Amino acid sequence: MQEGTVKFFNEAKGFGFIQPNDSNDDVFVHQTGLIDKIRENDKVKFTMERGQKGMNAVNVELLIN
After folding, report:
1. CA gap 44, 46 in Å, rounded
2. What's the pLDDT score for residue 65?
3. Is the pTM higher than 0.85?
4. Separation of first and last alpha carbons in the chain
5. 3-state SS, one letter per residue, for the chain
6. Which residue range(s) make up the domain with 51?
7. Which residues have C-beta within 8 Å of that of residue 5, sequence separation ≥ 6?
8. What is the pLDDT of residues 20-38, one digit of tens each?
9. Where do the CSD domain residues begin and end (predicted)?
10. Residue 64 confidence (pLDDT) above 90
11. Residue 62: alpha-carbon gap to chain centroid
12. Hey, what's the torsion of the CAs at 18, 9, 54, 24, to 10 degrees?
């Protein structure tokens, strides 16, 4: 699993982007790939999956400190 920070998430539209800790390239996330509810600036862990338009974050969970 990878870790990162939620850069943007629009709850009304159900999608957003995560900034992985090990990359400068944002990863798309859709509400169908969420395990926990997320908000901007949340620390999360996730797996990557190839979608129709590139890589997507799936199995997204909040990191508990």
Report:
1. 7
2. 62
3. yes
4. 17
5. CEEEEEEEEECCCCEEEEEECCCCCCEEEEHHHECCCCCCCCEEEEEEEEECCEEEEEEEEECCC
6. 2-62
7. 18, 19, 21, 41, 42, 43, 44
8. 999 889 999 999 999 999 9
9. 1-62
10. no
11. 10
12. -30
Burial of 22 (0-12, 13-18, 19+ CB in 10 A): exposed
CB of 54 closer than 8 Å to CB of 60: no
For residue 56, what are the β-bridge partners? 28, 49
Total tally of structural domains belonging to the chain:
1
pLDDT tens digits along 30-61: 999 999 999 999 999 999 999 888 899 999 99
